[in-house]
Design brief:
With about 270 residues, this protein is an alpha/beta fold. The chain is about 30% helix and about 25% strand. The chain is built from nine helices and 14 strands. It has helices at about 15-20, 25-40, 55-60, 90-105, 160-170, 195-205, 225-230, 240-245, 255-270, and strands spanning about 10, 40-45, 65-70, 75, 80-85, 110-115, 120-125, 135, 150-155, 175-180, 185-190, 215, 230-235, 250. The chain has an eight-stranded mixed beta sheet with strand order 5-4-3-2-1-12-13-14. The chain has a six-stranded mixed beta sheet with strand order 8-7-6-9-11-10. The chain starts with 8 loop residues before the first strand and ends with a helix.
Length: about 270
């Protein structure tokens, strides 16, 4: 345990959790994380974003620790800009999974995250990218399979993300892991991969365990991380499925939800 906190490891999701709606981190939350690290805890970012979509945020934060990216596929050393571990999607299984899902729900809009520090995100016709993140359009499906991938993203013209995730899990759950990471963000990952997989690897590198960890998140893809950590905190804006398994619910990402909890813990253990 740290002197001023009951947890030695603070794991935070990025979107909808550490980041506010405008993709910034509030001064209050930055200050709470600094106070927690000064009290002896380590902060680790655990995000669905692959490294190329995460690195600029970590650099802006002045963050030099480990980050778990790509839903657990990548452990990244932000200080050294180095990829320490990377798990890729079996492209043959992914192709089978896509075919099975499309047989169930009809044609999908598809994007894919290529492996590596500078891996492109390839975006097919009809796929709507959330926010202003960099991506590369493709029209020939064979381009999808031309290089190693971390994951595929799928969207559907009519189904909601929850409905699509449920249908995809039913059709292809034996071939890939299906996660709903936000509205418009349903992902197909290597089978068995989750944020908990990557977080446990990163924690071991830091000499820490699940019992040392408090985790903050907002979406169903954070459920495995909450199951692994000693204490799971859902943001006030969190998906109902995550709120249902959380140990507590804090205020929203736009209302400094992480800071609210850390400030309380620091004052209780001062």
């Amino acid at each position: 345990m740290s002197d001023g906190l009951p947890y030695r490891l603070i794991a935070t999701d990025l979107d909808g959790t550490l980041l506010r709606g405008d993709d910034t981190i509030s001064p209050r939350t930055r200050a709470a994380l600094v106070a927690a690290t000064e009290a002896g805890a380590a902060h680790i970012v655990v995000t669905g974003r692959a490294v190329p979509w995460t690195r600029h945020i970590l650099d802006d934060l002045g963050y030099e620790g480990l980050a778990v990216c790509g839903q657990g596929a990548q452990v990244y050393d932000a200080g050294q800009h180095r990829l320490l571990t990377s798990v890729t999607l079996d492209r043959k299984l992914a192709g089978v999974a896509l075919a099975k899902i499309e047989a169930e729900v009809g044609p999908l809009y598809i994007a894919a995250s290529r492996d590596g520090l500078d891996g492109d995100v390839l975006v097919g016709p009809g796929y709507a990218v959330t926010g202003a993140l960099p991506s590369t359009p493709f029209t020939d499906v064979s381009d999808l399979w031309a290089a190693p991938l971390n994951k595929l993203y799928i969207q559907h013209p009519r189904l909601s993300s929850d409905e699509l995730a449920e249908a995809a899990q039913g059709a292809a759950g034996g071939f890939v892991t299906v996660v709903m990471a936000g509205e418009g963000i349903v992902e197909l990952l290597p089978l068995g991969l989750s944020k908990a997989t990557g977080l446990s690897l990163a924690a071991r590198r830091l000499g820490m365990k699940a019992a040392d960890t408090i985790a903050f998140g907002d979406m169903p893809n954070d459920i495995p991380m909450f199951a692994w950590a000693a204490h799971g905190v859902a943001m006030g804006n969190a998906h109902a499925d995550l709120r249902a398994v959380a140990d507590e619910v804090t205020t929203s990402n736009d209302e400094d939800g992480i800071a609210v909890v850390l400030e309380r813990l620091l004052s209780e253990h001062a």
